Amino acid sequence: MRATVILRIVLQRGQRTTCEGHDSVKKYMPTIPEQTVILLSGIPATGKSEYARYLAREHRFAHYDLECYPRGWPNPELKQTWDTDRRAFVSQLREHHGRIALDWGFPARCLPLVVELQESGVKLVWFDGDITRARESFVQRGGIVVERFDDQAAGIRAANFPASLNCVIVARLSSTGVFLDDRQVTRVIFG
Question: Which residues span the domain enclosing 19?
Fold first, then answer.
């Protein structure tokens, strides 16, 4: 009875919604704002793109893979704006979509562009994890030479990311190679 009363109070305030689950154990998912732009970044091979696809599939996010133009852009005509003016880019994104997930494992030298995005209201989310396990995952998926992973990881260490960033940190990949579940990631970001 007490759990039901608490659930009703929380739902009346509009703060949380329930997920499917056993009747006696309610699992909560945060309410994701209808207007939100997030930038998913972090250690390579920690599941940024996978999570962005989850958001697109389950929560109606537009997923822009900034490194995969034009294939990864729902509106490829926005690329020229991205290249010249990040504030205008975010404004145009908001004209096209309500919920937006930008997917970009940015190199440290591009931090000024990220700051521009943040100043435009974009929430930076850093996918952190065990570097050794991430490297193994990177090698397993193939397609890109492992030196690219090593270079990116070295740049992350040199820039002291994520400690030097104003961001939400998600411990996505454990030292045992287990990825944090997408629902749990959602709770960390929007909870």
Answer: 1-29
Residues 19 and 36 in one domain: no
CA distances from 109 to 53, 117, 154, 156 (A): 26, 15, 12, 10
Assess whether 79 and 162 both reside in one domain: yes
End-to-end Cα distance, the chain = 24
Question: What are the pLDDT digits (tens) for 71-100?
Answer: 999 999 999 999 999 999 999 999 999 999
Alpha-helix residue ranges (DSSP H) falling in 21-145: 48-59, 79-84, 86-96, 111-119, 131-141
Dihedral sign computed on CA atoms, order 52, 172, 120, 66: negative
Q: How far apart are CA 116 and CA 135, in angstroms?
A: 30
- In angstroms and rounded to an integer, the radius of gyration of the C-alpha atoms of the chain is 18
Q: What is the CATH number of the domain that holds 182?
A: 3.40.50.300
